[in-house]
Design brief:
2 copies of one chain form a homodimer. By secondary structure, chain A is of the alpha/beta class. The first copy, chain A, contains 16 helices and 10 strands. In chain A, strand 4, helix 5 and strand 5 form a beta-alpha-beta unit. Chains A, B: Belongs to the NAD-dependent glycerol-3-phosphate dehydrogenase family.
């Protein structure tokens, strides 16, 4: 028997037929951030708010104002053309996306806040928004990374919750933003803490026929998947780049590829569970876990930069290569590797994380990129029976 | 800090220094089976029995006797040349491998029995060996597949245990036999039921510097990983072959690749846990799980045959393509898909396993290979929030 068919994966018939009750005004959504991924999020959400009567059509997007080379303001161009010409050129966001250069104005009426900025700006933004948002607002973070402080790492979702006094879900997955913008198939996972109803609202807001969203009750697990996969990916890239260079056969490469992905996934899971014992094993089987890691390894956007690093034997620094190849962007895995290393080192866990440790040593120039291929060292537990982590 | 270095991943110093006590004669190992994978197992084991004083040097290998085109007996050629010229030509097995055409003689003195034959022969072999083996023997199965009977599926390890009255571990992993024979890096997982000491002995017997073996206390989980990955792999191959043919960009393909692997892994785990509630989630993070699946998808040996099936739109049967392309071998996933389908259908679980169900429909010619790419159907649970399985 073939699987049953579903014409429309989200059942919106009830909300479409019955208008919202007077005491439930349509939900207003604001996106805090308007880079590449933020603009794609705006497009996804704007297509859904138009269809779902429980949401206000308009999607407000806070844009860090810039003056373009033409002399025009970025917000004006977005509002006139429905296009973020700087960070997502060629893609119409939807006429109901309104770019707003005033962050306080942008968030004022929103009850659903989507945070999607570079992670180093979040603490400042949170401080600025304290007391400026509705008390019944809900947040979601699409931001990868964490803040490492003296008393331990702080996830971005916690930063938002603690500063703004609101609950915060996360959405992670294989966010190859330009491909999602072209409406190519992709997946993501929403992590929530307690309230499944709110998680379902986020799923509804993001899910489209080409962007498949599921949810799991595990905020930290989902968030750490998104954060740590970059660390695993760099190890994978260097491990397999060596093989590419040596011109080995494809089939041999596959065994290496699979083994490093597995070790990366194992360290991601072990690190997450040591930090947050509530993290569930099953989260790593979701889109945010194994699928995002495989996608990142096989097709990640910063591939060329990591490969160039390996081809130069680690002799040209990341700062140099990033400046040359990534037009001012940073290679996310490098800062993650440093943050993860700080935690591992501080807690005395380094020897249980040979892949993460080695990746950091390579990033710092203390080991060559070839260090990844030494498997008897990468998997010391394996050779002695059961894994310790 | 760099990870600590280990010159020799297996610590054999104690057994090398202290000869075995008189009451502990060296362990004798027999391999039941001498195909491609069986011959590689013989090579791995024979290199270890020479090094480890707790094992008898000689490794006996039961060979189903054949007369070669030259008129010689296969066992004689193996014993004269140390090479299985039919199933692993060009590779020296080790002088301490003795081919024996008499199965009862081969197993008589062995206390460690390695089963590695095509799975359809195992029931007959077990019946033949009843009462012919030592009562203190231990077994391990390297065989993928299961026997589906009226009262449910029977794993090969259970078949061995039940018929021979001995405990049986399993060893599964990315067994691209020809690559392991060339001493290229690979990994495997031993699954054991209760006795960790016996599992450690198996690890010692198989582990080499290029073949990394770990163990987990989960026989059924490890065995089902090995069995079910072929089902997932076929779905993956067809799903991604469509994309190859349509000439889409690499990065889009990666998202599909990762998504189908994830769904395959999810169904493998769900199926295993429904059949055997003792199966552990963590087993799927081992080499036998995620790594073997990725390896099989990226480099599996029967890739050409599955691709040819898709390119012909399913119009040429597997029987036809196998005969043409696999020199008499069968594409393992096809029979697994049928066995899995019988279980799912009998227990009313079909709708929770859209990938496995669709793969079987394609194998039977009731759906075209293109059926795999319809993602809203493949992942119906995803679109409605949390997975049911």
């Amino acid at each position: 028997m073939a699987p049953s068919l579903h014409d429309d994966p989200i059942d919106d018939s009830i909300s479409a037929a019955a208008p919202p009750l007077p005491q439930m005004p349509p939900i207003k959504v604001t996106i805090v951030g308007s880079g590449n991924w933020g603009s794609v999020a705006a497009k996804l959400i704007a297509s859904n708010t138009l269809k779902l009567s429980s949401f206000h059509d308009e999607v407000r997007m806070w844009v860090f104002e810039e003056t373009l080379p033409t002399g025009e303001k970025l917000t004006e161009v977005i509002n006139n053309t429905n296009e973020n010409v700087k960070y997502l050129p060629g893609i119409k966001l939807g006429k109901n996306v309104v770019a707003d250069p005033d962050i306080e104005n942008a968030v004022r009426d929103a009850t659903m806040l989507v945070f999607v900025t570079p992670h180093q700006f979040m603490e400042g933004i949170c401080k600025r928004l304290m007391g400026k948002i509705r008390s019944d607002a809900e947040a979601i973070s699409l931001i990868k990374g964490m803040e490492v402080k003296r008393d331990g790492p702080c996830m971005i979702s916690s930063l938002i919750s603690e500063h703004l006094g609101i609950s915060c879900c996360v959405l992670m997955g294989a966010n190859i933003a330009n491909e999602i913008a072209l409406e190519q198939f992709s997946e993501a996972t929403v992590g929530y803490r307690k309230n499944k109803e709110i998680a379902d609202k986020w799923v509804k807001l993001f899910h489209t026929s080409y962007f498949m969203v599921s949810c799991v009750q595990d905020v930290e697990g989902v968030e750490l998947c998104g954060t740590l996969k970059n660390d695993s990916w760099m190890g994978w890239r260097w491990g397999t780049t060596q093989r590419f260079i040596s011109g080995s056969k494809l089939i041999i490469l596959c065994l290496y590829q699979a083994a490093i992905m597995r070790i990366g996934l194992r360290e991601m899971k072990a690190f997450s569970k040591l930090l947050f014992p509530s993290v569930k094993d099953t989260t790593f089987f979701e889109s945010c876990g194994v699928a995002d890691l495989i996608t990142t390894c096989l097709g990640g956007r910063n591939r060329r930069c990591a490969e160039a690093f390996a081809k130069n034997g680690g002799k040209r620094s990341f700062d140099e290569l990033e400046a040359e190849m990534l037009q001012g962007q940073k290679l996310q895995g490098v800062s993650t590797a440093k943050e993860v290393h700080e935690v591992l080192s501080h807690r005395g866990w380094l020897e249980n994380f040979p892949l993460f440790s080695t990746v950091h040593e390579i990033c710092c120039g203390r080991l060559p990129p070839t260090a990844i291929v030494v498997f008897s060292e990468l998997a010391p537990d394996q050779s002695r029976g059961e894994s310790r982590i």
